[in-house]
Amino acid sequence: MNDNTEILDSQLLSFLPVRDEYADILVQSMRYSFQAGGKRIRPRLVLEFCRLCSGNTENAMPFAAAIEMIHTYSLIHDDLPCMDNDDLRRGKPTNHKVYGEANALLAGDALLTLAFETVLSEKAVSLNGCEKCVKAAAVLARLSGYSGMIGGQVIDLQNENKKAGIETLKIMDEKKTGALIKAACLMGCIAAGADDKKLGFAESYAENIGLAFQITDDILDMTSDTKTLGKTVGSDVENNKSTYVSLLGIDECKRLCRELTENAVKALSGFDGDTGYLTELAYYLRDRSF
């Protein structure tokens, strides 16, 4: 995919503190994980749906930064010894390996709270108005909280060393992975003042690429290697977790990814503007394992 990652990285990083006289290690820990790389898929979704709904993407930038803060905090916490206990993230030592468990935990907490400070900041309100900022904050809270991403993580923990069924797996992934992707798409629409119909199309797109994204991750965990992915592979098998691959097989997983991707692309027909980037993104997320 052709993108301007360095420019976007710089814009997103500008929302983080640079130094703190008394807690500088916390700032360093926050920035370490936030700028560790990645495709910035969630902030791109915010900006692209804003553009697609005829909004000003500059106005949506605080929302884009906030969603990446939430995503980064979730990765820091996922890697902790009490969760997945991973040593690598995007080819680099995980946050707790560099800064210690306590600082990593607090860095995640700080990014979580900074996300809502950013959405409701004076800058965000001046760009978008109070109503849009409150609506965006509510969406972000709902989809990243107990009924969304965090709820999905709990389901994941409860099913370790168990053989969960396909329906449980789907609900878990709709929350753990899909909810934050949905939040990104909806927040972009909100920034542009989109109507409920367009919000519905954005939600459908998000639900389909979110599930395809997770199924692809399951395929890659079985077929790729640590060097290629930049994180430990095979952990699902090691932890005796049910995955789409273990339940359906790789061929059926790939068929399902194709179907979900086509459904996502069809949802984009509800928009009048150029959907080329979002179409390309849907196929890119699928084709990582093809």
> In which range does the helix fraction lie?
over 70%
| Strand line-up across the major sheet | 1-2
What is Rg? 18 Å
Distance between the termini: 15 Å
Shape call: globular
Q: Which class of secondary structure composition applies to the elements? A: mainly alpha
List the helices and strands and how they pair.
Elements: H1 5-13, H2 24-34, H3 41-52, H4 57-78, E1 88-89, E2 92-93, H5 95-99, H6 101-119, H7 122-128, H8 130-144, H9 149-158, H10 166-191, H11 196-223, H12 226-229, H13 235-238, H14 244-248, H15 250-267, H16 276-287
Antiparallel strand pairs: 1-2
What this model shows, in words?
The model has no long low-confidence stretch (mean pLDDT 92). This protein has helices at residues 5-13, 24-34, 41-52, 57-78, 95-99, 101-119, 122-128, 130-144, 149-158, 166-191, 196-223, 226-229, 235-238, 244-248, 250-267, 276-287; strands at 88-89, 92-93. The chain has one domain: Farnesyl Diphosphate Synthase, CATH 1.10.600.10. The protein has a two-stranded antiparallel ribbon. It contains 16 helices and 2 strands. Strand 1 (88-89) and strand 2 form a beta hairpin. The protein has 290 residues and is mostly helical.
Key terms:
Farnesyl Diphosphate Synthase, mainly alpha, two-stranded antiparallel ribbon, 71% helix, single chain, 290 residues, 16 helices
